[in-house]
Amino acid sequence: MFQRILTLVTGLVFALVLVACSNKAPAEAALKVADEAVAQVKASAAKLVPDQMQSLESGLAAAKDKFAKGDYKGAIADAQALPGKAKDVLAAAEAKKAEFTASWSNLSEGLPKMVDAIKSRVDILSQAKKLPQNVTAENLAAAKGNLAEITDGWAKAQEAFKAGDM
Predict the structure, then answer these.
(1) Are 76 and 36 in contact (CB under 8 A)?
(2) DSSP for 38-85?
(3) Tell me, what's the pLDDT at 22?
């Protein structure tokens, strides 16, 4: 009787090891695909939708953790869901980029006109022999300094936008 139980337990352990090993290769393959999918969207999505990108990376880490603990079925299930989620994150990043581009277009049309109007007014005040009653020399100097900062900041913003930094 004891030998039968021992034989049965040994057979069961052998069967479990065989099943575990047979699930390991598919789990590794699924993790590789998931890892590649996450890596492909990371560059585009990290700056535009960082929360969604972090969630995607957390999902990948969870799948890898399950794999490390020997839960190959769980790792496969988690890993197989990640490429679809990566596509969703990429779509969200592209939508955010389109939104930023539209906002940039509006801003780039209006801001230079406003800056030119302010510059014109500051130039007129600078050339005046007497400043209006509500404008002091200090206020005018501050306005000139702020105008220079705005102009410099706008130039930097244009360079960043051209470089793809939203």
Answers:
(1) no
(2) HHHHHHHHHHHSHHHHHHHHHHHHHHHHHHHTT-HHHHHHHHHHHHHH
(3) 59
Of 62-76, 79-93, 138-152, the least confident: 138-152
How big is the chain by its Cα radius of gyration, in Å? 31
Q: How far is it, in rounded angstroms, from Cα 145 to Cα 85?
A: 48
pLDDT in tens, 20-55: 445 788 989 999 999 999 999 998 888 899 999 999
- pLDDT digits over 155-166, tens only? 888 888 887 776
Q: Could you tell me how many helices (H) and strands (E) the chain has, helices first?
A: 4, 0
Q: What region does 70 belong to: left with phi over 0, alpha with psi -120 to 50, or beta?
A: left
SS3 content of the chain, % helix, strand, coil (to 5): 90, 0, 10
Neighbours of 115 (CB within 10 A): 14
pTM for this prediction: 0.66
Cα 25 from Cα 149, distance rounded (Å): 59
Tokens of 164: 């793809």
